[in-house]
Design a protein that fits this description.
The complex is a heterodimer of chains A (363) and B (405). With 363 residues, chain A is mainly alpha-helical. Chain A has helices spanning 2-17, 19-28, 41-61, 71-80, 85-112, 121-143, 148-162, 168-176, 183-215, 221-229, 239-264, 290-298, 308-324, 326-329, 339-362; strands at 30-32, 236-238, 302-303, 306-307. Helices cover 70% and strands 3% of the residues of chain A. Chain A starts with a helix and ends with a helix. Chain B has 3 domains: 3-208, no CATH class; 215-259, no CATH class; 282-373, Up-down Bundle (Butyryl-CoA Dehydrogenase, subunit A, domain 3). In chain B, 56% of the residues lie in helices and 0% in strands. Chain B is flat. Chain B starts with 17 loop residues before the first helix and ends with a helix. The chains are: A mainly alpha (363), B mainly alpha (405).
Chain lengths: 363, 405
């Protein structure tokens, strides 16, 4: 009787939601099986952490108040009075950091496995936009607890934006909602963090996922060549359930790490921001902005006739554009892939980020 | 235009200064004044050498510029230095050019001081303006390089007062500077850079420097320690000390070596009270009672701070409790102030308030530590659940992949 009811319901849904075609698509979806297959997990882990961000963010919204007089106190209230509030806030903060770390791992795995190549150029570009949006999430969310470190880090960050030629001043004023970081900035950053960025992220995430489904998972050129030489097809694994269950294991592992970090190292609240107090010593941004931050610190005040900071920002801008256009300069005019050049550029960028982030952290 | 600045004192703000021009080219002691004048507060306001030494700085001929006919006086006699400085510094109209609210009572005050009185009696070894402020390189008091800047004043006074040879003929001790260096006041000045902390001039006066008399010591200390003075004035000690001719605060706290106060001053082997009160007397018992109460609050506060610090290091959010410890710390300060009423009942009230706040904050710290332990247990259980699920998933994968397709 019950079995029959379920069958009817399933048939009803299948007819209306076209579940059959989805089932068919999933049943035929495969994942290439080779020594680098585990790197494919990082896209899914990033997505999993984003979902955690959304869920914990919604819970935080129930208590958070985005005004300079209430923001710090409301986060303090969440941490001390709300049942499991400390866990929700710590998981939100830790998962934000782990998501960005996972996104970077995913990006570099795409570079080193050369998964950006035709016809996945737009997939790569949408991924770069997603990484940029993740960094913007981090920058806007950092200010929301309205503590001393976040306040002055935002001041430094928006000051950097202000040093850009032509657009600098209006851009900084737009970000701050005035001449300096204040209540208007907090309201704006809150708006970006909970409305603008999630909207943009959802759009680009859907595009990214749709393109991944459309083009399938890329097979590294080396694996392809080996298979061609051996006149054998590249081994594959069914996406569902084989790969999906493995991905689920990776999500559980990420959840375990996240829980351990949140429980053993709860995200600290710091001291409430005082705009009239002098900036404390050792102000530095989140770890993912440390490399450019430390580089800008090393630059002299002037290089020839140009301001050092401006020159640094322009160089980072150019580097960003160059990196975003990777799929286009990764192939020569004959259409051959410049694997060594791309791998070299990837190693150089990764080394720079690792070394300068470490120097920025310890110096 | 510069001539228009000629004051009632007859001093001129010179445009040309041949004194500086010539002396800059000399060497040794003759060059030093010209070099020092670079930082001189007078020179920076246009007052040249001639303002004090007379002469005609507009002439390049030393025979003319340094002639008696042009008013050259040479090196002023030490006994006349205060009067020389006072020509300008006691002239309100002249000083008004440089400051909207000038101070012009320095000379009058100086003449009331022991230094001024000795100078007036012809003792040229007594301090004159230049001994403290310098001669040619006189800097503003707020300048950290000025010898009378709060951070440097003790050393400046000590140049004479810590010199046994200089003080020999006056028969006064020379240990004041060494004693002051042990004091809580010097600690505040030097270690914390607190320029409002007292140094020599705060108690003795600067231009009217004089040792505070027995009757005025409490008033001197009370300029900063107001509540202590008020309580002391109403206490049973005041009439007794007055009758004994004892110098109030100094009896317990010393004068130059004012050490950090502690409950040990009230009871125990180093208690200052025991100098007069037998331990079994009413006074001795009252002192011991006050000492024990303050010690109890001190320990309770330290215990609270310690557990809150531990909780904070464990990542627990205890900032509200940490803030509340300020109430206990404030109560401790009040209790220590209340000691000056020399009545255990006066100490008891702030001690009880402080103990209540300390108990509350300790409880908050202990709760935070229990919460930390609960979180760790929760984490352990969650991790086991996650590992079991992962193992289940792995077994499922193994089972799926071992089945033939």
């Amino acid at each position: 009787m019950v079995g029959g009811g379920l069958k009817d319901a399933r048939a009803w849904l299948q007819e209306r939601l076209c579940l059959g075609s989805i089932q068919k698509f999933v049943a035929h979806k495969t994942v290439p099986l080779h020594s680098a297959t585990p790197w494919y997990f990082f896209g899914g882990i990033t997505l999993f952490l984003f979902v955690i961000q959304v869920l914990t963010g919604i819970l935080l919204l129930l208590y958070y108040r985005p005004t300079p007089s209430e923001a710090y106190e409301s986060v303090q209230f969440i941490m001390t009075r709300v049942e499991f509030g400390w866990l929700i806030r710590s998981v939100h903060s830790w998962s934000a950091n782990l998501m960005i770390l996972s996104a970077f791992v995913h990006m570099f795995s795409v570079v080193f496995l050369h998964s950006y190549r035709r016809p996945r150029e737009v997939t790569w570009l949408s991924g770069i936009v997603l990484l940029g949006l993740s960094l913007a999430f981090g920058f806007s969310g950092y200010l929301l607890p309205w503590n001393t470190i976040s306040y002055f880090a935002t001041k430094v960050g928006t000051d950097m934006a202000a040093s850009l030629p032509w657009i600098g001043e209006p851009l900084a004023r737009f970000l701050r909602g005035g001449e300096d970081v204040g209540g208007a900035t907090l309201t704006r950053f809150f708006g970006f963090h909970v409305a603008v960025l999630p909207g943009a992220m959802t759009l680009f995430l859907l595009l990214h996922l749709a393109l991944v489904q459309k083009h399938g998972i890329s097979i590294p050129p080396k694996v392809e060549q080996e298979a061609r030489r051996a006149s054998k097809p590249v081994p594959e694994m069914a996406f569902f359930p084989n790969f999906f269950l493995r991905e689920l294991m990776a999500w559980y592992a990420a959840l375990g790490i996240l829980g351990a970090l949140a429980a053993l190292f709860p995200w600290e609240l710091g001291v409430k921001a005082d705009p009239f107090a002098p900036a404390p010593a050792g102000i530095r941004p989140e770890w993912y902005f440390l490399a450019p931050f430390y580089t800008l610190k090393l630059l002299p005040s002037h290089v020839w006739l140009i301001e050092g900071e401006l020159l640094g920002l322009l160089a980072f801008g150019l580097l960003g554009v160059f990196w975003a256009l990777l799929p286009f300069w990764a192939v020569n005019r004959a259409g051959a892939l410049r694997t060594r050049l791309v791998t070299g550029a990837g190693v150089a960028l990764l080394s720079y980020l690792a070394v300068f982030s470490a120097l920025g952290y310890w110096r | 235009m510069l001539w228009a600045l000629t004051g009632a004192t007859g001093l001129a703000l010179w445009a040309k200064d041949s004194c500086l021009e010539c002396h800059s080219g000399l060497s040794g002691d003759l060059q030093a004044p010209a070099v020092q004048m670079e930082h001189d507060v007078h020179a920076r306001r246009g007052l040249g050498c001639a303002a004090c030494h007379g002469g005609d700085p507009s002439s390049d001929d030393p025979q003319v510029s340094m002639s008696r006919a042009r008013g050259f006086t040479g090196k002023p006699n030490r006994l006349t230095v205060p009067r020389l400085c006072a020509r300008c510094h006691s002239d309100a109209a002249f000083m008004h050019r440089f400051q909207p609210q000038p101070r012009v009572d320095q000379y009058a005050q100086y003449m009331t001081s022991i230094h001024g009185k000795r100078i007036a009696s012809g003792d040229s070894a007594a301090a004159v303006c230049t001994d403290c402020h310098g001669t040619h390189g006189v800097r503003a008091v707020k300048d950290p390089l000025s010898p009378v800047h709060p951070l440097r004043l003790p050393e400046t006074c000590g140049r004479c007062h810590a010199d046994p040879k200089h003080m020999a003929k006056y028969g006064i001790p020379t240990n004041q500077l060494a004693e002051f260096h042990k004091s809580v006041h010097w600690e505040a000045l030097e270690k914390r850079g607190d320029l409002s902390a007292p140094s020599c001039a705060s108690c003795h006066g600067n231009h009217g420097a004089t040792p505070p008399g027995v009757a005025t010591v409490a008033a001197v200390c009370g300029t900063c320690h107001i509540l202590m003075q008020q309580l002391y004035d109403k206490s049973p000690h005041r009439p007794v000390f007055d009758a004994m001719g004892a110098a109030g605060c100094v009896v317990c706290h010393d004068n130059h070596a004012v050490l950090r106060s502690s409950p040990a001053m009230l009871s125990g082997p180093e208690a200052v009270c025991s100098r007069c009160h037998d331990a079994t007397s009413a006074g001795g018992l009252a002192a011991a009672q006050m000492g024990a109460a303050i010690q109890k609050l001190n320990e309770a506060l330290n215990r609270s701070r310690s557990i809150l610090d531990e909780a904070s290091k464990a990542g627990m959010e205890v900032s509200e409790a940490v803030m509340r410890t300020n109430d206990a710390a404030e109560a401790l300060v009040k209790a220590r102030v209340a000691v000056h009423a020399f009545d255990p009942k006066a100490v008891e009230q702030p001690v009880q308030e402080g103990l209540a706040a300390a108990a509350e904050t300790y409880q908050a710290g202990a709760d935070a530590m229990r919460e930390r332990d609960r979180r760790r247990v929760g984490l352990g259980v969650s991790l086991i659940a996650i590992l079991v699920t992962m193992a289940g998933l792995w077994l499922t994968i193994r089972r799926l992949e071992s089945q033939p397709r």
